[in-house]
Amino acid sequence: MKKMLLFVCAVLACFSLHAQYFCTVEGTELHYVNYDEAGQSVSNETATVSFVGRNDGKVTACYINKIVTNKLKNNTSYTRFDWSYDGNQTVCAEDLVYGPYIDSDSDPDKYDTAARTAMREELKYKGDNSFVLKEHAEGGESMPDRSYALIVKMLKNEITISGAAYMGEEQISTTAGKFDCIKITYLKRTKVVLKSTTHRVTEWYAEGIGLVKSESYDMKGKSAGKTLLVKIVK
């Protein structure tokens, strides 16, 4: 057993030398502040690395994100991000049914494949919201379009990501430190019933961390909000 544990640790350490864009240290907390279009703080978000493992030759990790919204009575919500790395590229998918599962007062420890499948059926989730971050991607290299839909508060939400591309590398400084990041940009179109909005989103991801910064603008170039990594607790 001891030899097996040492082997697993060695494998994870080897992967950490490559460019996986997520943290592989369980218990690490990534603290973010979310801002509105006027630059005012609207919520604080903590992503906790809750599980790291290895599956089918890939290193995997799960982030559980707790969002506390300012000036609301029932102000706490949750979401989850599942990450994987195969030695060449990082894949990330936000688990959009985890939050509704928690809101239904279900036991987080019982959230498994069966529970996820049941919630997807209940929310009529369709499509694929996962995205890929490649190592050493060239600036201007395109990324695949994707789309997905689900029912949120009895309203159908349809999201389309298009025109995504790598924008090279850039160093980002926040109160959490300085990070060498890969930069991506894309158009996000959200349709709720008959109303549609489109934003240009730019995101920066750092190796061994994940998201460092995100900015959104409407199609007239007006800010629609941003997210910043402000602290890392290990």
TrEMBL record:
Organism from which the protein derives: Phocaeicola intestinalis
UniProt-listed Pfam families: DUF3108_like
Domain of life of the source: Bacteria
UniProt keyword annotations, A-Z: Signal
Identification of the protein by name: DUF3108 domain-containing protein
Gene3D superfamilies: 2.40.360.20
Signal peptide location: 1-19
Domain DUF3108: 26-229
